[in-house]
Amino acid sequence: MFSRHALVLAAAVVALAGCGSPAAAPVAAPVSAPTVSASATAGLSITDPWVKTTEKGMTAAFGTLVNKGDSPITIVSGASPLSPVIELHEVVESGGKMVMRPKEGGFVVPAHGTHELQPGGDHIMLMGVTKEVLPGATIPFTLQVKDGEPLEFTAVGKDFAGGEEDYQPGHK
């Protein structure tokens, strides 16, 4: 698994590599089941993690956060070598429109409960993606827990057109 320093270094390398190369190689790997590491934050895991395929720019990651512990767990940030900027987002109604915005306070996973990350709802937003994400690509992630150890997992690239979600600039 990646250490926090390795993820920061990998993100910097991805960002710098994109600056000097007009045609970065797509991110692709054989299709395999997503992997989830044991977290030192007792009982925290993620099921079915996936990333919406994209050419470059922005995309989002989804899955179900699961807390088998006796206390709520708050996810406060995320990291991935695929993107130099990651935000925890929500979709809310504002002025008669549905808009995405950073989720104040992060994602709270209740004790013995789940928190759904899904298109049209809470999600992990990846901005500044410099490489294409193809179906079956495997993307490592780290989610930082408030007052706890990070959760590391691998998500799989997946085509998704439902709900007319578009995570590119200028689209809602």
Descriptive report:
This protein has 172 residues and is mostly beta strands. The protein has one domain: Immunoglobulin-like (Sandwich), CATH 2.60.40.1890. Helices cover 10% and strands 43% of the residues. The protein has one helix and ten strands; from the N terminus they run αββββββββββ. The radius of gyration is 16 Å and the shape is globular. Residues 1-40 and 168-172 have low confidence and may be disordered.
Q: Judging from the principal axes of the Cα atoms, what is the shape?
A: globular
| pLDDT averaged over residues | 79
Classify the beta-strand content into a percent band. Answer: 35-45%
Report the sheet with the most strands, covering strand number, pairing sense and barrel closure.
10 strands, mixed
Q: In the CATH hierarchy, what is the superfamily?
A: PCu(A)C copper chaperone
E-strand count: 10
Overall helicity: under 10%
Gap between N and C termini: 35 Å
Number of helices: 1
Total tally of structural domains: 1
Label the structural class.
mainly beta
Topology:
Elements: H1 4-20, E1 44-52, E2 57-67, E3 73-79, E4 85-94, E5 97-102, E6 107-109, E7 113-117, E8 123-129, E9 138-145, E10 151-158
Parallel strand pairs: 1-10
Antiparallel strand pairs: 1-2, 2-7, 2-8, 3-6, 3-9, 4-5, 4-8, 9-10
List keywords for this structure.
172 residues; mainly beta; Immunoglobulin-like; ten-stranded mixed beta sheet; 10 strands; disordered C terminus
